[in-house]
Design goal:
The protein has 13 helices and ten strands. The chain is an alpha+beta fold and 332 residues long. Helix 1 (9-37) runs antiparallel to helix 3 (69-89) and helix 3 (69-89) packs antiparallel against helix 4.
Length: 332
């Protein structure tokens, strides 16, 4: 009577390893999500500043449906952890049939999930290398996590039907690519991205974004529609006095959002530097490249860069402004 053939180590350990990677990914993306929602800066460089990571995580590609992309990544990692580890909870002695069914279904879910995450991460790596042109260690780490889970899913099981892998993977990959291109259509297509957003203040001073018609015209972009108060004007003058600069692009919706917070009169006092090459708006001017501007808008205050739309109280704090702070507008 022959001995029972032992399973290869990768078959026995693939699920725990996938689960461990997914938990690590969930912790990473949860950190990025909380930091983003709290308005903080991620630690990236040796001095603890956000550096290029902050530029990437504050870019237009880092938001989906108005929420941080990392939030969706966190949910995906949690799902992968559940798919990988749930069958391990059930003992074969307790319910062998249920355990087998759960293993079969969760392997298919792991295949679909890891394929989608690997394809989406591949697109983000393309964006990182060719569009944003920055290094983000968090993004690269997450992409390596996704690729590792995909490889372990393929190699971690004795798949009876190889065609099932290719068929399921191909369908999921196509759906992911189509969905990704649809989500980022407004960012990748300048004509669509340049549709104006008109922010209308309500009685409480909140700024709401509504879609309008027409395209932003260089070099000023969309017309500022909000009215400045004395505090906005005073802050703008103070920022210019201390040498603060605001870098942006006329076609950038977030730059327009920043302008609306100041109002027309106050923003005229801001030292604003246009980064879009007017001959080729998607190209950056030499001055902005030299300043190390990686995303719009970016503020330079006291020699340090602050990417993303900043609230007026935050600008007052960063610049040491001590005047009245009866600001009229705030973000929702």
């Amino acid at each position: 009577m022959g001995r029972k053939r032992s399973l290869p180590w990768i078959y026995r350990w693939s699920r725990p390893i996938i689960g461990a990677i997914a938990i690590a990914g969930a912790i990473l993306t949860a950190y990025l999500t909380v930091t983003k929602l709290m308005g903080g800066e991620v630690a990236c460089s040796a001095d603890g500043s956000g550096g290029s990571c902050g530029g990437v995580l504050n870019s237009e590609y880092a938001e989906v449906f108005g929420l941080p992309l990392s939030l969706f990544g966190c949910l995906a990692y949690i799902s992968m952890a559940v798919f990988a580890l749930s069958p391990l909870i059930i003992s074969s002695d307790q319910n062998k049939q249920l355990k087998k069914q759960l293993e079969n279904w969760t392997w298919l879910l792991l295949l679909a999930g890891s394929t989608a995450m690997a394809v989406f991460s591949g697109y983000l790596m393309y964006v990182l290398a060719f569009k944003i042109q920055l290094v983000c260690f968090y993004c690269i780490g997450s992409a390596l996590f996704a690729l590792s889970m995909f490889i372990l899913t393929i190699l971690g099981r004795d798949w009876e039907d190889i065609g099932q892998i290719f068929f399921t993977g191909a369908i999921v990959a196509v759906i992911t690519i189509v969905g990704t291109l649809g989500v980022y259509a407004n960012v990748d297509n300048p004509d669509i991205a340049n549709n104006p957003t008109v922010e209308v203040p309500d009685v409480d001073g909140l700024i709401f974004i509504t879609t309008g018609e027409g395209a932003p015209q260089p070099p000023k972009g969309w017309e500022i529609t909000t009215t400045s108060g004395a505090s906005e004007v005073a802050l703008a003058k103070h920022l210019t006095m201390v040498g603060a600069k605001k870098y942006g692009a006329f076609w950038c919706p977030h730059c327009y959002e920043q302008k609306q917070l100041f109002g027309k009169k106050a923003f005229a006092e801001v030292n604003y530097i246009e980064c879009a090459d007017l001959a080729n708006p998607r190209q950056q001017t030499a001055a902005c490249r030299q300043a190390g501007i990686n995303s719009y808008p970016t503020w330079e205050i006291n020699g340090k860069l602050y990417p993303g739309t900043q609230t007026l109280p935050k600008l007052a704090e960063l610049s040491g402004y001590q005047g009245e702070q009866e600001f009229k507008y705030k973000l929702p």
